[in-house]
Amino acid sequence: MTDYDAIIIGAGHNGLICGSYLAKAGQRVLILDARDQAGGCASTREVAPGFRMSDCAQWLYQLDDAIVRDLGLEAAGLKVGARKRTVALQADGDHLSIDGDFLRGAGIGTKDQAAFQAFRKQMDVFGKLMLKLYRGRAPKLVDANWPDRLTLMKLGLGLKLMGKTNMQDLMRIVLINIYDVMNENFDHEGLKAALALDAITGTNMGPRSPNTVYTYLHRALGNQLQSKGVVQVMGGMGALGDALQKVAETHGATVRLGSTVQAIVKEGDRVCGVTLSDGTTLRAKAVISSADPTTTFRDLLGYQRLETGTARRAAQYRTRSGTAKLHLALSDLPAFSGLDTAALSQRLVIAPTMDAIESAFNPMKYAECGPKQVFDISIPSIEDSSLAPSGQHVLTALVHYLPYAPKGGWEAHRQAVLDNLIEQLEAYAPGIKGQIVASELLVPPDFEAAYGMTGGNWHHGELSIDQALMMRPFPGSTQYKTTIDGLFLCGAGAHPGGSLMGLPGRNAAKEMIKQGAFA
Amino acid sequence: MITSSRDIMLLPTPFHSRVEAMCDMNDWGNWMGYTTPNAYFDVELEYFAIRSTTGVFDLSPMNKYRITGPDAEAYLNRMVTRNVSKLGINRVGYAVWCNDAGQVMDDGTIFRLGEQDFRLCSYQRADDWLAWCTLGFDVTITNESEDLAGLAVQGPTSCTILTLLGCTGLDQLKPFGIAHFTFEGAPMMVSRTGFTGDLGYEVWVAPAQAEALWDQLFEHGREYLIKPIGSYALDMARIEAGFIQAHVDFVPAEEVVRNGRTRSPFELGLEWLVDFSKPLFNGRSALLAEKAKGSRYRFAMLDIEGNKPAEHSFIMKGDKVVGTVTSAAWCPTVKSNIAYAQLEMPHGAVGDELVAEIYYQRELHWTRMLAPCRVIDGPLFNPKRRRQTPAPPF
Question: pTM for the whole thing?
Answer without folding.
Answer: 0.93
